[in-house]
Amino acid sequence: MISSNNQREFGIWRATSLVVGNIVGTGIFMLPASLGAFGTLGLAGWIVTSIGSICLALIFGRLSRKFPRIGGPYAYSRAAFGDFVGFQMAWSYWIGTLASNAAIATAFVSYTSILVPELASNPHLRFFVACAAVWAFTLLNMVSIRSTSIVQVVIVVLKIVPLCVIGLVGVFYIKLENFFPINPSGLPTFEVIGGTAALTLFAFLGLESATVPADNIIDAEKTISRATILGTIFSAVIYIWTTTVLLGVLPASQLAKSNAPFADAAGLIFGDWAAWTIAICAALAAFGTLNGWILLQGQIPLAAARDGLFPPILGKLSKHGTPVVSLVVSSLFMTVMLYMNYESSLVEQFTAIVMFTTFSVLLPYLYSTVADMVFLLKDAQTIPKTYLVRSLVIAFVGFCYTLLIVQGAGQHAVYLGMIFVFIGFPVYALIKRKN
Asked: Which end of the chain is more exposed for a tag (fewer CB within 10 A), N or C?
C-alpha cells in the first residue's frame, strides 16, 4: 500500500524498473509454447501487441499527467464516467488479477515439471501443487505484507537473466528451416494474428504499473509518462527478440508441446545442466511473482471497499493490518479457476487461463482509452490542434487494438469473462442501496 506521508521515492529509472519488472513476468516463459502452433506468424502477434501496448502506454502517460493520483486505470475511468464504471473497472481488474495469478501458478508447475516429471502427466498432482503454492502465499500475506528490496531484486534478476542468456547465445544456434512453414496451423492469417495478439497481451499486463503509486513518484506528471513508455518499449524488444530466437532454435512442433520452452532451448544449447538451471530460475521467478500478485489481489477489493464500491467486509483488516477476508475470497476464486482447467495439459491450461485474463483486463484498458478521448475533447479549446489530433488518433488506435484483442480472445473467453462481469452488477446494486 502507498505510504500516507506522501514521500516521493521513485525517479525515472526506478519507475521504469517498476514497469519492466511487472511486465516481464512468467508469461514470457510459457507463451512461446502457446504460440508454437502458429509458427513464425506468431511473431506478428508480438508486433501487433507491442504497437498496441505502446499506444496504451502513451495514453496512460497522458492520463497520468492530467490525473497524477493513486489508482491508475481505475481512477481515470471513475473520474470520467462515475461510480458505476469505476465499480466495473475495479471488479473486472480484480477478476483479471485472480486469473493472472492462476496462470502464474500454472507456469510455476509447468517449469517445476522439468524437475518433477510426474507433474506433466498427473493432473491431480499438478492441481494440488498449484493450489499449495497459492494458499501458502495467501497465508503468508495474511500474516504480513512486508517485503525486502533484496528479494525483489533477486526475483527480477531470475526473470531477466535466463531470457538474455538464451537470446544472446541462442542466435548462433538458429536454423532457418525452423521458421517454415510460416503458418503451420492452416488458420486464416487475420484469425491467427488476432488470436496471438490476445495471447501476447498477457505478457504486457502491468504496463500501467507506474500510474498506480503516483504519490510516491518524483515529478509524477512527467516521470510516470516517460517510465511507462520506456518500460513498455524495453519489454517489447526483449519479448520479440527472445521469441524469435526460440522459434529458430526449436522446431515449431516441439515448441508447441514444450512445458518449459526456455529450459528446452537451454538444454539444446548448453546441455542438461542448463535446462535444469533455467527451469529452477523460472520456477523461482514464478514463485516470487505469485507472492507479489497475491498481495495485489487482496489490495484491489480493499481499496474499492474503502471507496464504497465493494462490500465493506472486503475492507476488513486483521490485527496484522492485512485484508484477510479479501485474500481468502480471492484465493477461493483462484482455486476454482485452477480446478476448471486441471484436466488439460499444462500448455492448454495456461493458454485457457491467459485468454480469460486478457479479456478481464481489457475493460479497464478500453475505458481508459475512451476516458482519454473524453478529457481531450473536453479541453479541445485550450490545447493546440496538432496535439489534439495526434492524441485522438493514438487514443483511437488504442481503442481499436483492444477491440482486436476481444475478437482474438475467442468466444469462450469473452463469454466467460462477460458472465463474471455481469455477476458483479447485483453486488453493485446492493452496495448502492446500502449507501
From this structure: C
